[in-house]
Amino acid sequence: MIGKVLVCVIAVAGAAALTLITLIALVRGTIIAVSISNLPLRILAVAADILLGTVLLLGCIYLATRLAVRILGVEHADFPPSPEDTHQTEPSSKNWWHTR
Questions:
Q1: Dist. CA 93–CA 76, nearest whole Å
Q2: pTM score, two decimals?
């Protein structure tokens, strides 16, 4: 039990640290890309920064989610049943527009 809690804490801290390091690297890259004086090269650098940033942050989210699923052991769990629909699908009067 203690080992599982320790692994959970380490996984959360690792995912948070990885995300923080990624954000710091992206901010530094953005500052460098914006400071380029050649306009076409600056546009290319900012576009690459946006693409790389999106991929890195999605990777961090995937890794954190994957670690949580592996640690908690719910990899092959069934989805819970969907709630029953209690809303009416039709208005109370079918021809409500004729009652005006």
A1: 46
A2: 0.63
